[in-house]
Amino acid sequence: MGFTGAVSIPADVGLYDRYLATRVRRSDADLPETVALVITERDLLGDGAYRTLERFFDWAVQYGTDTVVVYVSVLDEEAIPTLQRELESVTAPREIAVRVPDDETTADAPIQISIGLGGQSEFATAVQKLAEDVDTGSLDPSDIDEAAVEEHLVFPTDPDLVIKTGAERLSDFMIWQSVYSELYFTDVNWQNFRLRDYLRALRDYQERQRRFGR
Q: What is the pTM of this model?
């Protein structure tokens, strides 16, 4: 079923954006229920970077997304506390859960933000927890399946659509969760990301036939 919700287009949005919005709205194809955004620490250093992120959250909600996941790759670990403080203070239409590498609490909010928590590390930690359960006798090895692994992930959400700005590389992004995700790469850098770029990603998603590994 296609998207049937009402979308308010700001008066200052151009004709091309309105055209894309109409295409998205009138399509019979589904829109993603869960959208993931992959950006870098450097992307958040530019002027207006956090305001762009706030707009991104608004766009996602307006176009029917239930869950938004933001993955911020980090080169300098000393930047993590500053990033965490800034990201926890952004304005968003729904509750935000921010997680850093040493925080293993499951992120269950509608907007989930990972700062420097790589997919390999997250998966390894989940496996360690399963091994501990087996060692204590609370889990039988034969009972370990996909659901058991997902119970121990910090970010248990499987994205329908993953958007990566600036380059065609996901690095260490949500290795387990994104195995069947649709990937959308754009050459547009984060500081230049606009509504039309988000709408292009949605249109690309609508035009695909999802196979989920089949």
A: 0.85
